[in-house]
Predict the 3D structure of the following.
Amino acid sequence: MTNDVGVVEATLLTGVTDAIANMTLLAGILLMMFYLHWRLALITLIIIPVVGIAMGRFGTKLRTVTRNIQKKAADITSILQETLSGIRTVKAFTMEGYEIQRFAKENKRNFDISMKGAQVRATLPPLVEFVATIAVAIIILYGGHEVIAGRLTLSDFTGFILYVVMASSPL
């Protein structure tokens, strides 16, 4: 309960304000990208959802694993509370060994799901960066073609690339 209240509080205080700031920043970046070269901006807008889909799939997986981690932590707390509140009964029936095994088994489940969470959290950033790198490579190829064809200046292209990099943070 305490953890959930903290998560909700953090989401309300920082999450909402960060989301508004990021959307405003992203809107400004997109406007500048369209100002510099509308065709390249359209290509970028086609590519961005691909990165978003990759992030969304792993985000869903991460939320599921995080939810399971919280459930396992609650299970361990429940077992501890149950055992400690009934300590006289446990001792009266000499069930210490059983309770230790039960706790160890639940603790192992908690460890396993925590490792799964660590695995998902370790996989997400490199995968998203790989997809984003491919997206930037496509943008550079098309933008380079436009510079060579004379439809885009090198300075505007450089500015455009900087805006693409800047857009990654609010995204």
Summary: Helices lie at 2-36, 38-85, 87-92, 96-149, 154-168. DSSP finds five helices and no strands in the chain.
